[in-house]
Amino acid sequence: MAAGTTVDHLTETYRAHYRSLLGLAALLLDDTASCEDVVQEAFIRVHSARNRVRDPEKTLAYLRQTVVNLSRSALRRRILGLKLLSKPMPDMASAEEGAYDQLERDALIKAMRGLQRRQREVLVLRYFADMTEVQVAETLGISLGSVKAYGSRGIAALRVVMEAQA
User: Fold this and answer.
1) Distance separating alpha carbons of residues 142 and 155, to the nearest angstrom
2) Which domain does 42 fall in, by range?
3) Which of 59, 88, 94, 113 is most solvent-facing, going by the fewest CB within 10 Å?
């Protein structure tokens, strides 16, 4: 059995996955500063518990779960509606294309705000964090069937809202 996640492994994980974890937090929270705080706090907690994370391959999963849990806590404390920030893609081909993409992202984010919390969490983890249904179930602490149900209902609700906007 390994002695736990090493500081060097955690440093490499930070370098490789900080931005993706920040993106995950951005889909769950309403401002950049809160997203950065949540991701930093997640790394601090994993660092403090690194001897308990025996398998270095599970470090990223533990970080994702911690980001989701800290995001929930931040939303609970504020009791505010979700206001997601989106950032323009750095490699946009043209201003027109960028503006169109921005409108589509804004519409999707607005539609995501209208979902139930659990539906939004499942869709964010499944499609934006690119996790499998099993990983989503483990991260959220729910059954695989619940992940499928929340995901299906969330997509159906998004489809209705997005088609109405088109």
Assistant:
1) 18
2) 1-82
3) 94
